[in-house]
Amino acid sequence: MKNQKVKILALVMAGCLCITGLTGCGGGEKDTSSQSDNGTTESVKEESDTADESESDTADEENKVSDDMIGRYVSQGYENPSFGFKVSLPDTYTLENRNNIALSGADVVESSNSESTYDYLRSLVELGSTTVFTANDGTTYIQLDIQKASALNDETTWDEEKTIAEKSVMTEEDIKESAGEDAQITEFQNNVEEITFLGEKHYAAQYTFKNNDVPYYGVSVYLVNEQDSRYLISVNILGLDLNAVDQADQLFSVYTK
After folding, report:
1. For the domain that residue 205 is a member of, what is the CATH number?
2. Each residue of 148-161: pLDDT tens digit?
3. Which of 104, 160, 201, 206 is deepest in the core (most CB within 10 A)?
4. Which residue windows does the record flag with biased composition (Polar residues) (predicted)?
């Protein structure tokens, strides 16, 4: 029975990574093309190509997701300077390696903070989304996911957090799809409400349900990056004990250097 509970927790948390139906306000591309006399067309084109390559390299570097935005593992926790918070967990929690190709027995913090791991996570963020931190104590799961507003348009930004929460709150269909065909989902409820998180007002998408009469409680908080609104991080908490889920926000605090 315990294995079944853990399986449902893990499956639903995996489903949290899939945010759909979210839109932002993207800017269009400017037409910077120009015409020249036939005698100078070739040289202008060569200079233009060189300039375009240089500008492209600069733009790629500027658009590169930073290590600070992905955040770093620390002993029994996580720090994210870009989003401005940290997670400090008691010894009952186990950190899960975010490098899915890490060797068995490898140090979780060291492996999760390796250069290759950051490069791997960066590539996934640019494709849309990825999980950057996961930990659990067997009955409560904490998962942090970074989402890009659009993988196709670097000008697209996220909506306001309230709108994101309202569009992203788990539905009964989402739970059934995540938990699998053997799940027996009953007494499903969801809502969005304003809460205090990290000392500020944010919006939480909350949901509860039972599977085979076992209660589950979940909450997701969506934080749009203040420096770059093309990105957000979702704080997802799911557990079997309502008090533990409600109090999990106490594990989060404002990041200071």
Report:
1. 3.40.1000.10
2. 998 888 899 999 99
3. 206
4. 33-42
